[in-house]
Every structure is written in C-alpha cells, then in structure tokens.
Amino acid sequence: MKSGSEAISAYPLLNGIDSPADLRRLGANQLPQVAREIRRYLIETLARSGGHFSANLGTVELTLALHFALATPHDRLIWDVGHQAYPHKLLTGRREGLESMRKLGGLAPFLSRSESEFDAFGAGHSSTSISAAAGMAAAIRLKHEQRRVVAVIGDGGLTAGLAFEALNHIGALDLDVLVVCNDNDMSISENVGALRDHAARALAKAGFDAPHARRPALSQTIAPQSVPPKPLAVERAAEHSVEQPIAHSLARELAAGTLFESLGCSYHGPVDGHDTAALLAVIDRLKDAKGPRFLHVITVKGKGFAPAEAEPIRYHGVTAFDPLTGAMAATKPGAPTYSQVFGDWLCAAAARDSRIVAITPAMREGSGLVGFAQRFPERYFDVGIAEQHAVTLAAGLACEGLRPVVAIYSTFLQRGYDQLIHDVAIQKLPVIFAIDRGGLVGADGATHHGAFDLSFLRCVPDFVVMTPSDERECQQMLATALTLDSPSAVRYPRGSGTGIRLDDAIPQPIALGEGRIVREARGQQPPRMAFLVFGTLLQRALAAAEVLDAQVADMRFVKPLDQQLIRQLAAGNDLLVTIEDNAVHGGAGSAVNEFLLQNELTVPVLNLGLPDRFISHGSRDELLAACGLDTAGILRAVQQRVRLPFSDSDQSSIDPAS
Questions:
Q1: Could you tell me if 438 and 619 are in contact, meaning their C-beta atoms sit under 8 angstroms apart?
Q2: Would residue 343 count as lying in a domain?
Q3: How many domains are contained in the chain?
Q4: Active site residue 165
Q5: Each residue of 606-648: pLDDT tens digit?
Q6: Which of 145, 212, 314, 449 is most deeply packed, by most CB within 10 A?
Q7: Of 103, 301, 379, 559, which one is the catalytic site residue?
Q8: pTM of the prediction?
Q9: Are 547 and 602 members of one domain?
C-alpha cells in the first residue's frame, strides 16, 4: 500500500471517506473521480492479496450512487452474495483492512453483521437479499418507523426460486422495497435460462447490446490496452432514460412480458450502471416511492480493467497478479485438484456409458465440468443458481433410466436437502452426488465450509456416503456409485490431492461398506489405540500414528459402516480415535459411537472433528490447526485423553505440512 503523500496523491478523495456520511459531503459531480480512485484501489490492493475481483469492479458506480442517495445505515441497504460488495466495504470504514480480507483474523470475505453496522444482512450464498429486505420492510411497517429498504441482487442471483418467492410476497404485501438488479449477464460462469435469453433479446430490441454479446469498454480501462477502443452499447444507455417511452415498452418485453409487474413490482430501467448521474437521477426518484419497485441496472463485470472485462470468469476470483498486465503468478505444477480428478473420471465414464448426464447449479468451472460440457454438451445441464431444481431434475432423469451425476459444493447442497430426501432418497433413485468442497474450504469462511454434509446425509435411509482419502479412492468410489441402484454421495475437499499416481486403467469399484487397515501398530505397549479416519485427513493421522505407534484404518464409508472392522479394532485396542473433517456432532464419529453402544462394545472413544461453532476464514491449514485436526492437534488431543508424555522431540519431528 502506498504511504504518506504518495497515497494522498493517488487517492485524494477516497482517503477522506471513512463512512458514507463523508461521501455525502462531496458534490455529485465528484463521484466519477471517486469511482476512478476506488477502481484503482481495488486493482492495486487485490493484485497483492487476491480475492473476488471482476464482480466488484462492476459495482463501483452503483455502490457510490446508493450510499450517496440513501441515509445508510439508517436506511437498510442489503447486498446479495458479497462478491460485489468490496466497494461497499471501502466506503464504510474498512478501506485499510481490505488487504486482510479472507485471511485468518482479517475482514470477512462476504457481508457480516458482526463486522459493520453498514452490513444490514450477512450473506455468502446468493439470492437472499430480497427475502431479507421483505422481512426488514415488514418489521419497519409494524414498528411505524421511517427507513428506506433497498435490496441489490445480481441477474445470476435472480435465477434462484428464492428470489421470485420473495418478489411474489413483496408484491402481495405491497411493501416499500426497492429491488436493484445488477445485470452483468454473469454469475460466476455465464448466466443461463429462458429469463436471461428473453431479457437479452428485449435489450437488443431496445437498442442495447444483448448482455451475453457485450465486449469490453476499453476506453476507460486502467490497464494498458492491447486492442483499439470499441464503443459499447451500454455506454450509451443514459440516452434511454427511465423517463422515456422505451423503458415502458422494455418493461413489457422483459421476462415474458409483464413478469415483474404481474408480481406487483413497478419496473424501471434499464439504466447504465456506470453512469453516476443517470444512476443518481433514477435512485433519487425511486427511493421515496411507495410499494415494490424493480430497477434494472446494466453493468460490465470487470469494468475498468481490460483483462477482467475480456475474461470475467477467469478474473472472478484472483490470486496475486500484475496490476498493469493482469498476468497472474505462475503456479508450480502439482497434484491435480479433486475437482479435476472428478472431471476427468466423469468424461472417461461418460465416454463408456451413454446413460451418464451431469448437472451443476452454476458451478461449471469450480466443479471441474468444463471438459464434460465441451465433450458432451447434450448431456450437460447447468440449471443456474437453483440447487433445489438441480436435485429434482436429477430425480426425473433417473426415473427415465439415466444415471445423473450432480456436481455440487457441500455448502450449496444444504439448499437442496428437502429434494434430496423427498424426491431422490424416498424413491431410491440412483442419483450420484459428487460433493466438492467438503470440510473446511479456507478463505470463504463460515458460509462456505462443508461442515455438515456427513451429519445430514448419514441419517437418510438407503443413502451410501463415501469419503475418499486420496485421488485414487475418489475415482474408485465414483465408479462404485455407478454400480448402485440407490442414491449415493462421494465427498471430497477443495484443492490438490496427495499426488498419488492414478492408473490409466478404468478405476474399479470397491466393496460396499468395506474399510481397510493402512497401518499396523509395531509394539504392544499400552495403551493400544486405533485411528478410524474418514476422508483426506488420513495423511495427518498417519503422521500422528507414527509418533504414538497407533493402528490406522481408512474407513472409506460413513454409511454403511464397516461393522466387522470396527468390532476388530474395538477388540484389539484400549482407545478408538475417530477423525473427520466434519462437525463432530452427528458426524462419522457419532455413527461409530452409536454402533458401539448398540452392540455393547465398551471400548473408550475420542471423537475428533470440527467443533460446535461456526468456523471463520483463513487458509485450510490454519483452520485445521485451529480446530485441532492437524497432526500436532491430533497428538495433543490423544495426549490429553490418555495422559501420554509428549516430548519436544516428538513435536519437532512433525512435518508442518501434515
């Protein structure tokens, strides 16, 4: 970060803004300069620290206009997701902490009510802002208070059913809510769906570029330009003022004619989301209007930074990069990620089995489905941010004899839990859930950790739950799932695998419910102990077992449990230690406890897993250590339980990476 006079000269206006009240003391004609300073600050800061990038560049002018026009925090400004809220954090007293975002002890990666009074509602998952705004507006009406309520939602977030449920209710109650739709034609991948396609056609008819056909507006970028500037239709959006007839005809055209009006919302727009004067004019006019209002704002994801405008998907979330060229630091070749391992397996399996289809709720890149989408486009279904629909769509496909694979993050599967039970499990349909980001995911924090999936899946009847300890087992378990006539889940973490060699041959299924011993104890000195490990903490457990001379079992299946193996371990040991990257309450260790009690096996058990609290953000290794799930933490927990001596030499022999 620049310091002293250098920083002041780079950000003369931004440095004087520690709250929206400071912003409102400026003249409206100064907002474009503040926007330029915010963009430069974001580029220079995130070039060092990384973070969500292109979406935030697209909301700079909109954020300025909203905070300038509203009396926040008295007025309630509710952001959706948080990918687009970095400018909001800059304007609300958190500018100096931006570089700490997503790091242990730093700013939250998304919105957090505990972090700032300006964060009216916490958000990590999408599509919640309108529902939250409805609740706040209803409460304000009941309390006879005078506050404005504004919800910002992206066009990607608007694909979720939750958003339309909220719009329907707002219209029914005639609540005083302004909904601002930030339309950049993107979620993380390109948006999909009939609503998006119809909106694109309507915008084109009104004289705008169709959202999916937009190109970078390079004339106002900060990075060096490698191509000549090209005008963008959205740059001319101000001439289509909401006061002009075009807006009213467009309102009728958008979203199957009168969709928003039929839900009780007055439609306004579209307006250029990078024209502060146009934004202020319409927000000033709408902020004190009554009833539900829907404002359509057109923005460009990555605005102001040429590489991000050209490749908004690649620059959605960034690591450190060159602020002039956009080049990201080269990563050293390493083990493939579990997402890549899954994607490679899926393509190979689909080439052999025409029944296989893949479903994703708007997470093509993150879930490793890019290759599948390219090779098998007719068998690839991106449903948008609609996890409930993704699960029931899979159920319908399975009813017709196909073998659907739902590629979904653990945290997002929580949204489809009712459908998983009601539509898949009760009907015993052979849907495969490839659950990515299981356990602690790191920098995205509490809203994104996959902390609960083993707990909420193992209680579902006839549901097979598998936890691979490495990449080879991941492929073998996916192959096992294909052999089943019941629903199943293969749950794996974020990031790279162990680097184990993967065979070129087709992975073979493994026996259902069968674990394996991966380390035998060398001596017979008491206390004899066994580690029962579920998932990829196996390597950390093995390192601790070397110090303690413990027996280690790779359990592999949470459901069905390997009951014979548990009996064997209980009979031969004085202590069983279950280890999992999941909530300790109700997880795999609890399943072991239940089996021991039901069968009157009285061996003591130590359950290690995620503690009974929401875990904040930081690197995965930092969070595992904080939860006592690194090698040193496992050793400490066992030492405290059995009061074993634990020397400094034992501690120093532990590989820090374990």
A1: no
A2: yes
A3: 3
A4: no
A5: 999 999 999 999 999 999 999 999 999 999 999 999 886 555 4
A6: 449
A7: 301
A8: 0.86
A9: yes
